[in-house]
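Example complex used in Figure S2.
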Amino acid sequence: MTQDIKLFEAQERIYPKRVWGKYRKLKWLAMIVTLGIYYLTPFLRWNRGPNAPDQAVFIDLSNAKAYWFWIEIWPQEVYIITGILILSAIALFFVTSLFGRVWCGYFCPQTVWTDLFVWVERIIQGDRNARKKLREGKWSFDKLKKLAITHFIWLVIGWCTAGSFVLYFNDAPTLVRSFFEFDVSPTVMWFIVGLTFSTYIMAGFAREQVCTYMCPYARFQSAMFDADTLIIGYDEHRGEKRGKHKKGTSWEGRGACVDCKLCVQVCPMGIDIREGLQMECIACGLCVDACNNIMDKVGQPRGLIRYDTVNRMEAEKHGKSEKFRFLQPRTIYYSSTLIAVGLVMLVSLIKRTVLELHVLHDRNPLFVQLSSGEIRNGYIIKILNKTHEHRTYTLAMDGLENAHIMVKSAGQIASDNLYVMADSIGMYHVFVSAEVDPANPRDIVFTLKDNDSNLQDTYDASFISKRGK
Amino acid sequence: MTNDNNENKDSKSNKDIDEFTGIETTGHDWDGIKELNNPAPRWWLWVFYVCVIWSVWYWVIYPAWPILSGNTKGTSGYTQFKELAASQSEIVARQQVYLDRFENGSLNEIMNDPELYAFAMAGGKSMFKDNCATCHGTGASGSEGYPNLNDDDWLWGGRISDIQQTISYGIRADNDDTRISQMPAFGKEGYLKSEEIEAVVDYVLSLSGSDITSTNEHGKTIFAQQCSACHGENAKGLQEFGAPNLTDKIWLYGGDREDIFNTVYNSRAGMMPAWKDRLDENTIKQLSIYLHQLGGGE
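Predicted assembly (767 residues):
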């Protein structure tokens, strides 16, 4: 029987120790840049004239528009979002195949916010040992106070994070003001409450569990690794046999690892990198910093733990040195796909027009016999005015002799004076009548011209004058 | 745990450790492939328990289980009917904003106000499908005996006020204000002989530009005597009597010689119910505007 199998495992609390070095500096820098972008972007302004919002980055859900500085996206241009997702995915594959999980280690929101929360924890409760002692120790006023302050700051950060998220979907200054006036819609309120707690729980408690158990990306990254991928590696050949080292004694017959366990203590994932590359490793490089500091102290060369490829480490073991290979089949096809998709996106952005005409033939009735003997067809036309000005347009039709156009809408509207408000869609019911013999559908073309500029768009349609076949 | 288990733990033979990873296996073995026992995180178990508790709570609060007499109702009294009623009243409240303006607005105001216009068209469209489509078809294109409302041929007038009048009081309906007229059954009741009817049919056909080109003096005389009182001397019809224009290309009951003969012989008298007691004034107004804007309104 297998009754004694352990099905569930309690989360082991990790208390990452403070460390200083090259990679820690990079991590701080990445955190400042990413969080700075995240928290401040909603407040950037971008002048689009009087008829469009002036928020630089803005997702306007109620009007179904998204703004990104000079780019504006309408719902039918959602393929641009698809393109961005494809670009991000391929860029991620590309970077991973060369440099390993640098996204995980430096830029992933889970990592960045966890790092921030650990920093708060350290400021309030002290470094690794103090935190461990406090948490495992008896309840006291001091413990209560420190924990309360920590959790309070965590919640404040969570609240700022949630608030910033909501700002991307609302006019930031207006919403901030209405927040201080306690006049916020329930939707906004619930989003803020929900995201505050998800930030608090994810960065305060779940932490490395997210990377290990929830994140699919962490799992499939191994498929992108090979012996030429940069990983955090422990140079076993140089390090073993490990053991404590007394100052002044010889290094003969032993490895450079002094078994100080600092690499384990600083690890935010709580693993021992000396056991080799593990699924949990997010490649943040803090163990590299920790080990380098120790190597400096004991007078050994740096790089016992380092960013390196398996191939280079192997070569070094045999006294050879190998170059880091940038050009591999994978990096070539990842980068060429990246360039191809990027070009397609660029072309579609450049070719994006600010005027679009859509024509939909009436389905019922397909055509109408008029008393004069003429045949009439009806069409719903939609004019997409993506400029930020109110415009008028002229609609013309080609492909049918002696045809005339009639527009039905509010007010008396002529086909050379179709008005569409700035940044919106105008819809008109248009009728085309002509004296024709009943025949199979005829191809016709609608042309829409902007009255104030040389913008124009065409749409192929058909004119029906006979039932069935 | 029982002593048994402790004994198992102590005897190492019972623990199957995978050689390569050093991780305990579940003991399951498929042709040499073993399953590593990587324990699931404890919090996952808690989430599971919370879900279980939540589902029990859900059963209590909301309708959930089928029972013989229907289903458990739940303590909150939730049903989707209530939700439907709520969203319907929300729609009515939203319509109310326009309804007041629509009710008091003149036709001219409504036709020139994009919001009220859209309100009229949307309301008219849906009310048409509910009430009128049975006879006139979903696209209002009618069929034999039921006029096509898209075209520019109106028996009783195609201005919005005419349409409003027709919808409200109907045609040959059971009220004093209804539109009414009666074409005699010229053949059946013996006013005209068959040859005379044929002559007049030829004459009428020649008016609407069919291939019959020979001037038919006999038919013309009969038309002037018998038909022109309602259809007009030029046969272009008279909307006061609902008498159709006979010179155009639209024939409600068919434009073949035989069809027209039948019409003259037996007469025609289509009818339409009055809607003023079934639909409220605003709905009729919406319908009138909608039909007028289908393309043929005068």
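Residues 141-167 of chain A form the longest helix (27 residues). The interface with chain B takes residues 1-11, 206, 209, 213, 362-365, 368-373, 376, 378, 406, 408-411, 429, 431 of chain A (CB under 8 Å).
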